[in-house]
Design goal:
The complex is a heterodimer. Chain A is an all-beta fold. In chain A, about 0% of the residues lie in helices and about 50% in strands. Chain A starts with a strand and ends with a strand. By secondary structure, chain B is mainly beta. In chain B, the strands form two sheets. In chain B, strands 1-9-8-3-4 form a five-stranded mixed beta sheet, with no helix packed on it. The chains are: A mainly beta, B mainly beta. The interface between A and B is medium-sized, with 25 and 24 residues.
Chain lengths: ~120, ~110
């Protein structure tokens, strides 16, 4: 199947700093990428949909100025958590669509963010 | 919001078939049923999807009722590595809204 990578896999940052997470589709062109957040023992929550070359569409309740998304190429999307606070600590997962099968999303391994 | 309902947890004996049900009574005609699973602290893994007909691949089988209001994922011979949270998602192929999923535990 198609491969999606994320970097870093884990990051610890201090409160007030910004953190950038990269999501790459390694063997296919991803016309659309999605960003999710998952708290412990909870399900994935969709944060935003990112289409290459256009502005991301954010889900209700997700602050676009806090979670900056850039999808500059067909293989790379980035999520920047700005002015991070401890409550932003979570598991961030990206997915990409654009493979052979309609609608099928390929998920990255996730990034564990801890804000101290 | 998620449009699916799944049991919170299930157990299955190793080597036996695991049947995971999902209710999606408000599914629209252009929505597919997707199944993914998530092993602890990893990204979800695609299993199978379908629209109307039953589907089978190397991982599992998907049985969709004729009225499309429910489906069942079948893992024919469960192994310990199949222990995971299984998510049933209905989608037109755009956004995925995850429900709470079913935590499947395969017992030796």
């Amino acid at each position: 199947g198609a491969v999606v990578s994320q970097h870093p896999s884990r990051v610890i940052c201090k409160s007030g700093t910004s953190v950038k997470i990269e999501c790459r589709s390694l063997d296919f062109q991803a016309t659309t990428m999605f960003w999710y957040r998952q708290f412990p023992k909870k399900s994935l929550m969709l944060m935003a949909t990112s289409n290459e070359g256009s502005k991301a569409t954010y889900e209700q309740g997700v602050e676009k100025d806090k979670f900056l998304i850039n999808h500059a190429s067909l293989t790379l999307s980035t999520l920047t958590v700005t002015s991070a606070h401890p409550e932003d600590s979570s598991f961030y997962i990206c997915s990409a669509r654009g493979g052979r099968t309609l609608g099928e999303q390929y998920f990255g391994p996730g990034t564990r963010l801890t804000v101290t | 919001d998620a449009k699916t309902t799944q049991p919170t947890s299930m157990d299955c004996a190793e080597g036996r078939a695991a049947n995971l049900p999902c209710n999606h009574s408000t599914i629209s005609g252009n929505e597919y049923v997707y199944w993914y699973r998530q092993i602890h602290s990893q990204g979800p893994q695609y299993i199978i999807h379908g629209l109307k007909n039953n589907e089978t691949n190397e991982m599992a089988s998907l049985i969709i009722t004729e009225d499309r209001k429910s489906s069942t994922l079948i893992l024919p011979h469960a192994t310990l590595r199949d222990t995971a949270v299984y998510y049933c998602i209905v989608s037109t192929g755009n956004q995925f809204y995850f429900g709470t999923g079913t935590s499947l535990t395969v017992i030796p």
